[in-house]
């Protein structure tokens, strides 16, 4: 297996997962806030929409099926 095949399988699997869950949401730690001696932790929320999952799925399939041109 070459890197192109592995990359296409990864894109296909990620696309299927995102579509199966109707999008993915995840949080990352945000910038902490210091106010009057209080330390407040924040978090940032991110969302990957299903359209991105569909694009990953189609891109992985195209990458898998299209053969590179010979030079």
Structure in words:
The protein is α+β, with helices and mostly antiparallel strands. Helix content is 48%, strand content 25%. It contains 2 helices and 4 strands; from the N terminus they run αββββα. Strands 1-4 form a two-stranded antiparallel ribbon. The longest helix is centred in the N-terminal third of the chain and has 18 residues, at 3-20. The two termini are 21 Å apart.
Question: Could you give a quick summary of the protein structure above?
Answer:
Helices cover 48% and strands 25% of the residues.
Question: How do the strands and helices of this protein lay out in sequence?
Answer:
Layout: H1 3-20, E1 24-29, E2 33-35, E3 38-40, E4 43-48, H2 50-65
Antiparallel strand pairs: 1-4, 2-3
Helix pairs in contact: 1-2
SS content category: alpha+beta
Largest sheet descriptor: 2 strands, antiparallel
Question: What portion of residues is helical?
Answer: 40-55%
- Portion in strands: 25-35%
Average pLDDT metric: 92
The helix-strand sequence is HEEEEH
- The backbone outline, from C-alpha atoms, is elongated
Please give the alpha-carbon distance between the first and last residues.
21 Å
Rg, nearest Å: 19 Å
Q: What are the segments in which pLDDT stays under 50 over at least 5 consecutive residues?
A: none
What features would you highlight for this structure?
about 70 residues; 2 helices; two-stranded antiparallel sheet; elongated; single chain; about 25% strand; alpha+beta; 4 strands; about 50% helix; two-stranded antiparallel ribbon
